[in-house]
Write a structure and sequence with these properties.
Blueprint: H1 12-18, E1 25-29, E2 34-35, H2 40-50, E3 55-59, H3 66-69, E4 78-82, H4 88-92, H5 118-129, E5 135-137, H6 139-144, E6 149-151, E7 156-158, H7 161-165, E8 169-171, H8 176-187, E9 198-202, E10 211-212, H9 216-221, H10 225-236, E11 245-249, E12 252-256, H11 264-271, E13 278-279, H12 287-292, E14 295-297, E15 299-300, H13 310-315, E16 320-321, H14 324-335, E17 343-344, E18 346-348, E19 358-359, H15 362-367, E20 382-383, H16 387-397, E21 404-405, H17 413-416, H18 420-429, E22 434-440, H19 444-450, H20 455-471, E23 477-484, H21 491-503, E24 510-513, H22 521-528, H23 542-553, H24 555-558, E25 563-564
Parallel strand pairs: 1-3, 1-4, 4-5, 5-8, 10-11, 14-18, 17-21, 22-23, 23-24, 24-25
Antiparallel strand pairs: 2-13, 6-7, 8-9, 9-12, 11-12, 15-16, 19-20
Helix pairs in contact: 2-8, 10-22, 18-20, 21-23
Bound molecules: iron/sulfur cluster (2 copies).
């Protein structure tokens, strides 16, 4: 086990050990502190540390006790706030708004240490503890709430989290470049006005070329304008769009600059920092670490643009791939760890088979307003060659100490069908026996709203995967994910899914009862009950949502207990 000083400081004693009297940056998170390149607060901490800043981590502080916030004293530059790796609504509540009994991102699964609306609560506590110290918001919760959004707990529209928190600046998307820029500017006492990948609140006019969104007053007067807002933002998430947006509030304009430029070299450098891949010893093991400990992040961004997905709102649709050399070096570092047992559990990202995808003509993307690069068909401007990925997998598994190298991130089966060789090699050696796929539904109208491929595409993939598994003399299965209670999913549509599963004698453990996540089109549809053309859509109520879930899990047939997935 690594010594505590291998981690960033979490206490005054840790600071003393490094000879520090004051931190430059205090990073606050609702998660337990584990030092892994998949964990946002650990990544930002390591990146700042590598740039010479003195960084401390305040994990799961008591938001009612100012003394807890003073553990490491007042930071010189700023307090960085993240709710955690997952939106706190998802972490704390089920789709039926029952309190969850576990929190896998907390030590010992403790479900009690993270406040609701964690970003807002922590920002308020930071302002009270450290008056005058700038507060910087980051992470997926802040990122997806950078403009007005529908809140599932309050069942109402809310203002941008930047307005409600009175934070100084909000970082969206992967945040390394922005955070370094913010730290440097605060050190040099320069304004935080024009940093790509950030949003600020100002009384001044926004740049003339920024797209105006409906004001909060307009949204309040006519909720259906949330559909128009979300469509504008989705178009802006496309590769190479580089769009800026602004939204008016009584408290000033929320001005959101274009995304930070994708920088694959910086992505490499970040993931090769000296992460311990362990939970901090002071808090005890964090269960979420165990599923990712020996995994490697290869990509950011996803071209899918699924209407319910917070990841694409956060990271955008441009796939940024790390270099092959950097990924292989990280695998070699893992293989040298004395606790490693020979299996790289995942080389992936938001989508398991997106590494190496490229765009043929960037200028076409700059003009494109499609919300998905894969739906209703795979765009011809997207190069779907899986050859580079196959080469990477082959080289990774040859590294001494590596016996298996798996892809455990969800596969885009429509993309995989473009490469029969990929399906063969996946089945022969790169899956642990259960391959995650996410058809999400079978009903064509529901799939249209979700922006997912027709179920026949999954069936074709399954035939090919099973044939490849037989050829490899392996008994392997697909692990399909479905969503119940989706906007537009009528009783008849849900029955189709139930019948499809029954015909296959299949029950599914991994089912998500729909939760409208801020910033997504699915949340806008849920909040408005209609599409942007005015067509009404069916919104399943609580009883129907539960019925739909039992159809998927088969509990109406088997009586088996249900599990719920959090995405
Ligand atoms: S394929 Fe997965 S990661 Fe990509 S947009 Fe869809 S749900 Fe999100
Ligand atoms: S042109 Fe194609 S690849 Fe580019 S943004 Fe549009 S749909 Fe995506």
């Amino acid at each position: 086990m690594s010594e505590p000083c291998a981690f960033l400081p979490v206490s005054r004693a840790d600071m003393d050990r490094r000879g520090w009297t004051q931190l430059d940056v205090l990073l606050v998170t609702g998660d337990g502190y584990f030092d892994h390149p998949s964990h946002g607060v650990a990544v930002i901490g390591r990146v700042l540390e590598a740039a010479g800043y003195r960084v401390g981590i305040l994990s799961r502080p008591s938001w009612k006790d100012p003394a807890d916030w003073m553990r490491m004293g007042r930071p010189a530059l700023f307090v960085g706030i993240a709710a955690g790796a997952v939106d706190s609504t998802l972490n704390n509540y089920t789709a039926d708004l029952a309190r969850r009994r576990t929190d896998s991102f907390a030590p010992a699964n403790d479900p009690h240490g993270r406040p609701d609306f964690a970003t807002l609560v922590y920002a308020g506590a930071a302002k009270a503890a450290f008056p005058g110290v700038p507060v910087v918001l980051g992470g997926i919760e802040a990122s997806t709430r950078r403009f007005a959004y529908y809140d599932y707990i309050k069942k109402d529209l809310r203002r941008s989290i930047l307005v409600d928190s009175r934070a100084d600046i909000l970082v969206f998307g992967p945040g390394e470049a922005q955070t370094l820029d913010i730290a440097a500017r605060l050190r040099n006492q320069e304004p935080l006005d024009d940093i790509p990948g950030t949003a600020v609140r100002r009384r001044t006019d926004p740049p003339a070329n920024y797209t105006v969104l409906p004001s909060f007053a307009d949204l309040r007067a006519d909720r259906s304008q949330l559909l128009a807002q979300t469509a504008l933002l989705e178009a802006g998430l496309g590769p190479f769009r580089e769009s800026g947006f602004w939204q008016a509030y009584d408290e000033g304009n929320v001005i959101c600059h274009p995304p930070a430029p994708a920088d694959a070299d910086a992505f490499d450098r970040t993931h090769e920092l000296p992460f311990t891949r362990r939970s901090h010893p002071s808090a005890g093991p964090v269960p979420a670490l165990e599923t990712v400990r020996w995994s490697v992040i290869a990509t950011r961004g996803c071209p899918g643009g699924c209407s319910f997905c917070a990841i694409s709102c956060h990271q955008g649709r441009r796939v940024v791939s790390r270099s092959r050399a950097s990924i292989l070096r990280e695998i070699a570092t893992i293989a040298a760890d004395p606790d490693f047992r020979g299996t790289i559990t995942d080389v992936g990202g938001p989508t398991g088979n997106a590494w190496g995808l490229s765009i043929d003509n960037k200028n076409i993307c700059r003009r494109c307003r499609r919300p998905s690069c894969l739906h209703p068909d795979i765009c011809r401007n997207l190069d779907t060659d899986h050859g580079l990925l196959l080469q990477l997998l082959a080289e990774g598994v040859r590294i001494p100490g590596v016996r298996h190298l798996f892809i455990a991130s969800g596969i885009r089966h429509d993309l995989a069908l473009r490469s029969p060789e990929f399906i063969d090699r996946l089945a022969a050696g790169h899956t642990g026996g259960h391959l995650k796929v996410a058809p999400e539904h079978v009903d064509i109208k529901t799939l249209e709203i979700m922006r997912k491929p027709r179920i026949e595409v999954l069936e074709e993939f399954e035939r090919k995967f099973q044939a490849a598994s037989r050829k490899a003399k392996k008994e392997q299965y697909l692990l399909p994910y479905f969503i119940a209670g989706f906007p537009g999913c009528t009783k008849a549509a849900a029955d189709k899914l139930g019948s499809w599963l029954q015909r296959r004698h299949q029950t599914v453990d991994q089912v998500q009862n729909f939760i409208p996540l801020p910033g997504t089109m699915a949340a806008a549809l849920y909040a408005c009950g209609k599409k942007s053309d005015g067509e009404k859509i069916f919104i399943p109520g609580t009883k129907e949502r539960r019925r739909q879930k039992t159809l998927v899990t088969g509990t109406h047939r088997t009586g088996r207990p249900q599990k719920e997935r959090r995405t």
